[in-house]
Write a structure and sequence with these properties.
The structure is a single chain. With about 130 residues, the chain is mainly β. Helix content is about 0%, strand content about 50%. The protein contains no helices and eleven strands.
């Protein structure tokens, strides 16, 4: 059974940091793209960052680039999202998600923000609130 379990969300002041963790089980990182989406009231669920374990490629959406860093520890089956310089606009529920590679390659690329409907598996989410 595939499971994605997020942790690390919470309340933080603007300018602060949080590190989210996603513990994965039931599939191999080598064959999947794995990453983070966030959902705030209104905009819907939008991809933030993703990672391809095969080659170490990472993608960050434009509005978090330079502030968020995704990484993975394959030995621990865990993906992290280090979030620095947090802003009130980062307030959302953050979801871990994964999708199998296709015959055309990995889905971790610059279209990640719009690929929510393509994900195979989702975690239940962890809330992040950034106060001003």
């Amino acid at each position: 059974e595939v499971q994605l379990v997020e942790s690390g969300g919470g309340l933080v002041q603007a300018g602060g940091s949080l590190r989210l963790s996603c513990l994965a089980s039931g599939f191999s990182f080598d064959d999947y793209a794995i990453g983070w989406f966030r959902e705030a009231p209104g905009p819907g669920r939008v991809g933030v960052s993703c990672i391809r374990s095969k080659d170490g490629y990472v993608y960050h959406a434009h509005d978090v680039r330079g502030r968020f860093t995704i990484s993975s520890d394959n030995a621990k089956n865990t993906v992290y999202l280090q979030m620095d310089s947090l802003e009130p606009a980062d307030t959302a529920v953050y979801y871990c998600a994964s999708v199998a590679d296709t015959i055309y390659g990995s889905l971790c690329h610059d279209r990640w923000p719009s690929l929510g409907n393509a994900m195979d598996y989702w975690g239940k989410g962890t809330p992040v609130t950034v106060s001003s």
